[in-house]
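== Polypeptide entry ==
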Amino acid sequence: MTQRSIAARAATAAAALLGTAAGVAAHPHVFADSRMEIVGTEDGTLRSVRNIWRMDELFSSSVLFDFDKNADGVLDEEELAAVGAVVRESIAEWGFYTFVEIPGREVKMRPPDQIRTLWQDGQLIMFFEMMADETVDLKTTAVTFSVFDDSFFVAFDFIDDTAFELFDLPSTCTKAIDVPDPDAAAADWMASISMLDPNQSVPEDGVEWGSVLSTKARVSCAG
């Protein structure tokens, strides 16, 4: 089953995360309670990031409708494996919504080998690991971690700073969490629009609200 056939059958919300949300959303339609595990080494080098996403009930029910082949109201092991395979293929184009940055550029991360899935209390849970594809020394470089959809069709919510966890890193490593203020972001955008030349149009793509409103964790191991 292709991602396009899924979009034809599933609800709009389900189609979004499976990679078919073409374009634009003034507000999110899919919600995920998110956690990120930032994994390193004893010498302060980044090893990987692990994402855990608990999808909202509407999205989960849409996926259930499309993948519950035996119609028993839950996703069994084989059905869950099919969900993970389709999602992995579909969101690869968007970097798995996972962004690791050092000053001036993004860090290269390897695609996950697979996206594992669980069905728990009527909700779909997805989790996967992405390995660093280059050497990043957190003792000398602060690294920023975030998860977002540029179109803001999918909203990833990190409940508090405990949603970002550090594993296997030196005790000198610290994290700082940046939770953006939506009102301030909107005000900044309106201010930028007001400064446009009268003959200058607003960019067609508008604001990348997913990035602007994403919670970010900044990690450094400088002792």
Summary: The chain is about 25% helix and 30% strand. The chain has one domain: 3-181+210-220. The longest helix spans residues 77-91. The mean pLDDT is 82.
